[in-house]
Amino acid sequence: MDIPRDPKPRKRKRAIQLSIAIGAIVLVTAGLRTLQPAAPSVDSATVWTDTVARGTMIRQVRGPGTLVPQQRRFITAVTAGRVEKLNLLPGTEVEPTTSLMRLSNPDVEVQLLQSQQQLSNATATLIQLRSTLQTQVLTQEGLVAQTRTQKQQAQREYETNQALHERNPELVAANELARTRDAAEELATRLEIETSRLQVLRESIDEQVRAQEDQVERLRSIVRFNQERLASLEVPAGVGGMVADLPVEEGEWIQSGGTLARID
After folding, report:
1. Cα–Cα distances in Å, from 150 out to 136, 185, 264?
2. C-alpha to C-alpha distance for 200 and 212, rounded to whole angstroms
3. pLDDT of residue 123
4. C-alpha distances in Å from residue 103, one per residue of 4, 81, 243
5. How far apart are CA 64 and CA 61, in angstroms?
6. 105-118 burial, b for 16+ CB within 10 Å, e for fewer?
7. Rounded CA gap, 236 and 95, in Å?
8. Do 194 and 127 fall into the same domain?
9. What are the phi and psi torsion angles at 74 (to 5°)?
10. Is residue 248 within 8 Å of 165, Cβ to Cβ?
11. Is the N or C terminus of the chain more exposed, i.e. has fewer CB atoms within 10 Å?
12. Is residue 219, in this structure, part of any structural domain at all?
């Protein structure tokens, strides 16, 4: 005889199993959320391994194209000349004041000596001119003073003769009176002329001296120019960098503006 079973224990067992499964899922999900993201992985054959060290990190990057220097300067000849000596070779590191080479040009040296001689002569001429003009002024001032004295003496003589003639015509003859009058008038005119000549001489001094001073200054500028040309025969780098090219040889004649070197 079959005995009927109670279905409640079986349902209760299923409910417990379902609750356990749901709890396990919740715990796994919560655990996964708390995990940190995994670090990326790479193939060990593609990396270099080494010990960590402190210092400068050098990163080399490869790329297509031509490497161009940040600064490139061509050194040209200011003055034509012959290359006497090359002081260094391509590939040398230089500073702005480093001498690259030395040129020579006898004509530049001769022109400097000639301009210096001309300047010396012009300076001596200026000194002599000032002395001469000052002497002329002093001489003219003496002549004016002498003429003024003669004029005053002649004027007094004429006035005396005129007074005597007016008092008694027999004391001074008419011809003598006329002579003293003419002499006084002549000396008065001469005094005016000499005074005007002195004024013109004084005014011309500044113009003559200024003209000679301008000549001296022009020659001084020429001397400075020739000195700069002579100094330019010693060729400096002008900038810091590396000498990339020296397209000249010792003994070669270089025209003004010709390329002497390239610095990168």
Report:
1. 21, 11, 86
2. 18
3. 95
4. 129, 5, 18
5. 10
6. beebeebbeebbeb
7. 9
8. yes
9. -100, 125
10. no
11. N
12. yes
Q: For residue 49, give every residue at least 6 positions away whose Cβ sits within 8 Å of its Cβ, in sequence order, or none.
A: none
Could you tell me the residue range of the domain that residue 76 belongs to?
A: 71-105+233-264
Q: Which of 186, 199, 208, 203 is nearest to 140 (CA)?
A: 199
CATH number at residue 96: 2.40.50.100
* Residue 91 and residue 178 in one domain: no
Is residue 242 within 8 Å of 51, Cβ to Cβ?
no
Shortest CA distance to 234 belongs to which of 196, 260, 212? 260
In a domain, 63, yes or no: no
Regarding whether 148 and 258 lie in a shared domain, the answer is no
Report the chain's C-alpha Rg in angstroms: 56
93 and 114 inside one domain = no
Q: How many domains does the chain fold into?
A: 2
Are residue 154 and residue 224 in the same domain, yes or no?
Answer: yes
Q: What is the pLDDT of residue 117?
A: 96
- Structural tokens at position 1: 């005889």
Chain segment 113-142, per-residue pLDDT in tens: 999 999 999 999 999 999 999 999 999 999
Shared domain check, 152 and 264: no
- How far, in Å, are 81, 153, 161, 186, 220 from residue 165 at the CA level? 92, 18, 6, 21, 70
Q: What are phi and psi of 231, to 5 degrees?
A: -65, -30
> Token digits for 123?
């300076």
Could you say which DSSP state residue 45 is in? G
Residues 116 and 216 in one domain: yes
Residues 161 and 240 reside in one and the same domain: no
What is the per-residue pLDDT across 27-68, written as a single tens digit (0 to 9) for each? Answer: 767 766 666 665 566 666 666 676 777 777 676 767 676 665
